[in-house]
Amino acid sequence: MVTPAYLFLGRLLVVLGTAGLAVGGVMVAFPAGVLRGLVAFPRWRTPGWIMTALAVFWVGWIMQHAALGRFEWVKPYLPFAAVGLYLAVLFLLDELLSARALGALLILVANPMLMGVRWAESIWRHVPAVIAYVWVLVGCALMLHPWLFRKTVERFLPHTVAVRRWGWIKLAGSILLLAAGLWHLP
Predict the structure, then answer these.
(1) Where are the domains of the chain?
(2) Does the global pTM surpass 0.85?
(3) Distances from the Cα of 183 to the Cαs of 4, 26, 118, in angstroms?
(4) What distance in Å separates the CA atoms of residue 33 and residue 64, rounded to the nearest whole number?
(5) Burial 152-184 (b: 16+ CB within 10 A, else e)
(6) What gap in Å lies between CA 72 and CA 82, rounded to an integer?
(7) Which DSSP state fits 120?
(8) Are residues 166 and 157 in contact, defined by beta-carbon separation less than 8 angstroms?
(9) With contact defined as beta carbons under 8 Å apart, do 127 and 13 qualify?
């Protein structure tokens, strides 16, 4: 019997595989551009502003729909608090904001992944769960120590040959995820 969790698992694996194919393909096709983009990313303000807005909106939405118990009276003020939080982050944490915001989004996106595959009757449910927990760890590290993004790029992607090599590894893993996802779809 095909359950909603089983279908979600299949779709999630397809999405992860397709996104991985796109990223791996870009890494293989344009290694110099990818390396320049990764080196510039932590100090690039525009993605930091956009990703911070997404993260703050997402947290505000979660809090708006959560049961806050004795703090229910706070809900009408949440939109104003979210705007204030966004402006405070832009003003107070503007140093390496893109890496911090990426970390926040990695933490936030892990929850729906874990909740979606929780009851899937397949051994493959562990793959997105492991990916989600790795994203949480990476997200926490990036939020606390955003300079780790640059250090990781310097260590694992020192030149275009390494970018292309990691791109091929990404393509191989993504093909496996995509095949598993297609196998799970009815």
Answers:
(1) 4-184
(2) yes
(3) 15, 26, 19
(4) 40
(5) ebeeebeebebbbbbbeebbebbeebbebbeeb
(6) 16
(7) -
(8) yes
(9) yes
Residue 59 in this model has a pLDDT that exceeds 70: yes
| pLDDT at position 186 over 80 | no
Q: How far apart are CA 6 and CA 24, in angstroms?
A: 27
Please state, in angstroms and rounded to a whole number, the distance separating the CA atoms of residues 127 and 29.
27
* pLDDT surpassing 90 at residue 154: yes
The 10s digit of each residue's pLDDT in 72-127 is 999 999 999 999 999 999 999 888 899 999 999 999 999 999 999 999 989 999 99
> Minimal CA–CA distance to 138: which of 107, 167, 114, 111?
107
3-class state of residue 96 by DSSP = coil
Beta strands in 62-182 (DSSP E): none
